[in-house]
Amino acid sequence: MGINKWLKPLLLTTIAPIFIVLAIFPVREWLTTTDIVMLQLLWVAWVAVRQNAALAGITTLVSVACTDWFFVLPYFTFHIEKIEYLVTFTVMLIVGLMISKLAGELSKTFVIPSYMPAIHDVYMS
């Protein structure tokens, strides 16, 4: 049971961003780096809402690394030749961490009212 506790978060934070990048990779000539960053941030937001802020932060770091590795010239290195990509990755990192922080705060403050299960039972029966 202990390994299952860590397997799903590991898949969500590391493997899924890599699959997203590999799915986008064949059409990389049609997309700008900013488009790819926005697609990665969608996944970060999903992880932040469904899991927690720490996992969304890790997902952000993995997404930045994957985007740099696969979509920035020179490909398959972490070398950044143009300063604009450094700015893009910095903003992606900041926005991803902000999304994770806000989603974490939202999940702490969101409480299901006690009457909601009763309403659900009435309308679903």
Q: Which stretches are poorly predicted, pLDDT < 50 over at least 5 residues? A: none
The helix/strand series, from N terminus to C terminus, equals HHHHH
Helix amount, in percent? over 70%
Return Rg in Å: 18 Å
Calculate the mean pLDDT score and round it: 80
Tally the beta strands: 0
Label the overall shape.
elongated
Strand content: under 5%
The main β sheet shows up as: none
Q: What is the first-to-last residue Cα distance?
A: 34 Å
Quaternary state, please? single chain
Enumerate how many helices there are, as a single number: 5
Helices and strands: which structural class? Answer: mainly alpha
Question: Helix and strand layout, with pairings?
Answer:
Blueprint: H1 2-24, H2 33-50, H3 53-71, H4 83-109, H5 116-124
If you had to describe this structure to a student in words, what would you say it looks like?
- With 125 residues, the protein is mostly helical.
- The protein has five helices and no strands.
- It has helices spanning 2-24, 33-50, 53-71, 83-109, 116-124.
- Helix 1 (2-24) packs antiparallel against helix 2 (33-50), helix 2 packs antiparallel against helix 3 and helix 3 runs antiparallel to helix 4.
